[in-house]
Here is the input.
Amino acid sequence: MKQYLIDVLYDRLTEEEAVEYFKESIFNMKNKKSEKLSLYMENEKKYIIFFEKLFYLNNGEAKVKLNHFSSYDIKEFFLSERKYFIEILKKLSIEQIGLKEKINITNVKELTAFIKLAYRDFYDTNKLRIYFDELEIVIRSSGDYTFTFYPKDKKILSIIEDIAEKTNVFIMEVGLWNKK
Here is the structure.
């Protein structure tokens, strides 16, 4: 099976561009009132729309598995978002918070919170996995503001590529992306 990258950037960044792009977290940009924040928020919104479309195509449900989580992760949310994310956490079992069980998501707003968690923690690879069981798709956060997946067949790849095109998200085979 081939691995694919889901990214909001079509071209690979040069080393200098990457240093600038990954210079600081979204939370720090917000605190400093950085002019760059709007670009990052626009990119986050593209991912949210992309994942929402997959969610609804998957009969309005998904499962999330956290691979690691700490209280520091809550700081990735803006103050206006933290209360909601803490409410989500309060509903979880010890096994789910302890990273042993998947979290059932039937509310797109909850899915959005987990997408934000994965997107904003750009240093942490494999923060979470998102399972769309009806579509037989598992998508992993991979750090660097990207996600990866292994489609089981060309039909699934086609579905994801179609959604990506409609949401201005790009899908690239990992081996091909690395050669650019």
Remarks:
- The chain has a mean pLDDT of 82.
- The two ends are 21 Å apart (CA to CA).
- The first strand starts at residue 4 and ends at 7.
